[in-house]
Specification:
Elements lengths: L3 E2 L2 E2 H35 L2 H32 L3 H30 L15 H21 L2 H31 L4 H33 L15
């Protein structure tokens, strides 16, 4: 016989929250793939692939709606409390953040047709590593959510400084590039937007990390300064 506590069946609740975590993991996988594909398309000037990245964003939107529906239903039917409730609320919030991360990948893909000579602009060589770090942050923080691992959440936040440093370096390099030759302004500006989108991915990964930490511990993570010395 299944154990019941506080008006909901523990086994049934565990199955419901596991389904929520699976949906979040699925969303994370799609978002990671979208970022990787957008960056590949940028490097190879693959306009057809970029269009596919944009089209695939609808899958993330649909998963966010499904996650929200299930989370609200779980709260209404199972009446979770304490740590259980924090997990459900975290899933609800995280799904929205992951959907926005997918939007940043879509934004990068939309720039691909507009940047014809990207490989001729030296600062683009920094973008793949910046994207790799930001994407790994998303991957690891969503794993931390599934495992309820507060320590990994903290570690993910610490890696955001590296993403910010990359953005600062790219900003300065592109600004110099534009000043040296006005003909570079258009393409360099598009690349700057790409870098800004990646920087925002890192920021959103830290936002998720804060939610994971709170869900796992019931305490708020110590506030961290995210102020950049370079305007964005």
């Amino acid at each position: 016989m299944e154990q019941q506590t506080g008006g909901h069946t523990l086994k049934a609740f565990d199955q419901d929250i596991d389904r929520l975590r699976a949906l979040i993991s699925q969303m994370g996988g799609l978002a990671e793939h979208a970022i990787g594909e957008a960056m590949r398309c940028l490097a190879q000037h693959d306009t057809e692939g970029a269009l596919q990245v944009v089209a695939n964003d609808k899958k993330l939107d649909a998963l966010e709606v499904e996650t929200e529906r299930r989370a609200v239903q779980l709260i209404a039917l199972r009446a979770p409390m304490a740590g259980d409730l924090r997990d459900v609320v975290a899933a609800l919030k995280i799904s929205g953040v992951v959907e926005r991360i997918g939007d940043y990948a879509k934004n990068i893909a939309k720039r691909v047709p507009l940047i014809e000579s990207a490989n001729k602009i030296e600062p683009i060589s920094l973008l793949p590593e910046m994207a790799r770090i930001a994407t790994s942050m998303v991957h690891d923080v969503l794993d931390a959510f599934v495992q309820r691992d507060a320590d990994v959440a903290v570690e993910v936040c610490e890696r955001d400084d590296a993403v910010d440093d990359f953005y600062d370096s790219i900003f300065r390099a592109l600004l110099t590039h534009m000043m040296e030759n006005p003909h570079n302004i258009s393409h360099a500006t598009h690349l700057l937007f790409v870098a800004k989108n990646l920087e925002r991915v890192g920021d959103h990964a830290t936002n998720i990390a804060e939610m994971v930490y709170y869900a796992a511990t019931g305490e708020h993570m110590t506030d961290r300064s995210r102020t950049s010395t370079i305007p964005g």
